[in-house]
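Changelog entry: the NADH dehydrogenase [ubiquinone] 1 alpha subcomplex subunit 6 record was regenerated in this release. Current contents:
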Amino acid sequence: MAFTLRSVKVPPNSASLEEARHRVFDFFRSACRSIPTIMDIYNLDDVASISQLRSTIAAEIRKNSHITNPKVIDMLLFKAMEELNNITEHAKQRHHIIGQYVVGRQGLVQDLGTKDQGISNFLKKFYNSNYI
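Regenerated structure tokens:
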């Protein structure tokens, strides 16, 4: 699978917004098709499901849905294809994938229910402000 993605190139410019949009959909399809291979390479079955990774990819694409310039869309698409290529060629380690795509930008969910019982309010505020 990794060698088939190597040959995929983004043309320098899309002629229109509609063409750039179709290229984004094609990229999303190819990324979703490579998810099972990525899960096997990085052994992600214990931390994420295929649907979770698919929704993470969709969320990353939707994050830039406000962009209407085809050149900017092509540039972002090129960066996304390079990222997918790096992942499928095992250029990243497992903790990189987990940190970026499983845990995400919101960080780890901390279970502070039982640990916080003996901590002062000052320390609780300190931990909340420094360890988001």
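Residues 17-107 form one domain.
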